[in-house]
Amino acid sequence: MVRRGPLRVGFRATADEVNGPDPRVAYAIPKLVGPAVVRNRIRRRLRAIVVDLDRRPQGMPVGDYLVRVSPGAVNSSHDELRRYLTGAIDALDDG
């Protein structure tokens, strides 16, 4: 797991033949973060960021990702979430 700001990201490489060419991403957003409306807003933002990251020339490594969100994400802007998630995924790719 790699932590960046209010996000923790875990990664497990998988075989392309099993899951296809696309990465799979799961989001763990506990009720402690806020009501359903807030949790869903954060999830939508993170999904949009993941789509953009996968469109980069280097894309995202194929595998399973778990994005764990802490309550600090509620006050984070879209740009801050993008910076945190990009940093975490790049750190996983380097490590």
**Could you tell me how far the N terminus lies from the C terminus, measured between alpha carbons in angstroms?**
11 Å
Shape: globular
As a whole number of angstroms, the C-alpha radius of gyration is 13 Å
Structural class: alpha+beta
Helix percent band: 40-55%
Find the count of extended strands (DSSP E, 2+ residues): 4
Strand order of the largest sheet: 1-2-4-3
CATH topology: Ribosomal Protein S5, domain 2
Number of helices: 3
What ranges have pLDDT less than 50 throughout 5 or more consecutive residues?
Answer: none
- What is the mean pLDDT? 91
Under the CATH scheme, the architecture is: 2-Layer Sandwich
Characterization of the model:
The chain is α+β, with helices and mostly antiparallel strands. It has 3 helices and 4 strands. The protein has a single domain, classed as Ribosomal Protein S5, domain 2 (2-Layer Sandwich). It has helices at residues 16-19, 36-55, 78-94, and strands spanning 2-4, 7-13, 24-28, 63-69. Strands 1-2-4-3 form a 4-stranded mixed sheet. Helix 2 packs across helix 3. The longest helix is centred in the middle third of the chain and has 20 residues, at 36-55. The radius of gyration is 13 Å and the shape is globular.
Write the topology of this structure.
Blueprint lengths: L1 E3 L2 E7 L2 H4 L4 E5 L7 H20 L7 E7 L8 H17 L1
Parallel strand pairs: 3-4
Antiparallel strand pairs: 1-2, 2-4
Helix pairs in contact: 2-3
